[in-house]
């Protein structure tokens, strides 16, 4: 537990390739990271599973927004979990909350059962819970293997103190993976303050300019704040720099 590991958070084939070349130990495969991530397509998963040898965990999130799910949404998520596990996913990444900000243990228990013993990560719905220590204990009882968290802050550097407390409280029963705003220049500091040696990052530097020559700037296909002509992808060299730092934490 807490063995140095870096997970690439990726939502395209190009980002998967860059993260793998850069030294990722595991991938979290998503779609639509610009809105926080949603469930990817089975076709993308098949491509990634075919071409890359490292473990792939799949984000199960049916939509943008809160983590208060209806019964039909739960049915959709359970079907997705069975689908991706059947296709060979190493695990799934899940989360569900009650209206009062606790983990929805009933819905999460059903999703864990659908995973059939495969690796389960509790995603950053954890960061929206009212009591992180209660949520940690519930995750342990559910048999969840990893909690992905920023320490209930906007970035891991801002959440260092809670990350430290969570790792101490976990006491080897569940992995604490630091994620959100992880940059190469922050990793050693977060480790020094918290002891966490498992990190989750997109490894991005900035937007990649679109190859489109003709551009109609007056039309937006999605959120008006996002340009149609900027692509956000994992940068191989950025990811490699992060990976080298994380892998070096084992000797410290």
Overview in brief:
It is built from eight helices and ten strands. It is of the alpha/beta class and 252 residues long.
Question: What's the topology here?
Answer:
Layout: E1 5-10, H1 13-21, E2 26-29, H2 42-51, E3 56-59, H3 71-87, E4 91-94, H4 105-115, E5 119-122, H5 132-142, E6 146-149, H6 160-170, E7 175-179, H7 184-194, E8 198-201, E9 208-209, E10 230-231, H8 236-248
Parallel strand pairs: 1-2, 1-8, 2-3, 3-4, 4-5, 5-6, 6-7, 7-8
Antiparallel strand pairs: 9-10
Helix pairs in contact: 1-8, 3-4, 7-8
How would you sum up this structure, described in words?
With 252 residues, the chain is of the alpha/beta class. The protein is 37% helix and 15% strand. The protein has 8 helices and 10 strands. An 8-stranded parallel barrel has the order 1-2-3-4-5-6-7-8, surrounded by 6 helices. β3, α3 (71-87) and β4 form a beta-alpha-beta unit. α3 packs parallel to α4 and α7 (184-194) packs parallel to α8. The protein is globular and about 55 Å long. The model has no long low-confidence stretch (mean pLDDT 94).
Helix/strand order, N-terminal first: EHEHEHEHEHEHEHEEEH
| Rg for CA atoms | 18 Å
Number of helix segments?
8
Number of strand segments: 10
Reported for the largest beta sheet, the result is:
8 strands, parallel, barrel
List the strand order in the largest sheet: 1-2-3-4-5-6-7-8
The residue fraction in helices comes out at: 25-40%
Strand content: 15-25%
pLDDT averaged over residues: 94
Low-confidence runs: none
| End-to-end C-alpha gap | 16 Å
Q: Overall 3D geometry?
A: globular
Structural class designation = alpha/beta
